[in-house]
């Protein structure tokens, strides 16, 4: 290791691989704006957040969790200029409020990093769970 390597590390850090918790929040932040499908969710992440990476395994674990919790539903849709139908995901109306809270956590995480998760939604959730 050299000091130049240390400086290069901070100038061009390695990608951050999302875990399931972060992926749930990321997915909800996208689905609040429009319905989407798996490949598109990964593509949007690469474009909007190039420092982050998301594996198919983690993404589909997060989508399965959200479906089991009845926060999102899936449906099949044939997209223009695409071969096979895609499994599209949308937020259920009754899950919208919690989806907004979790999307705020994602926004704060990407803006401030993991050390400063101090959003009103996060503080509210902590207060409720401590009661």
Automatic annotation (TrEMBL):
This is PadR family transcriptional regulator. Residues 27-100 form the Transcription regulator PadR N-terminal domain. It holds the Pfam family PadR. Signal peptide: none annotated. Gene3D superfamilies: Winged helix-like DNA-binding domain superfamily/Winged helix DNA-binding domain.
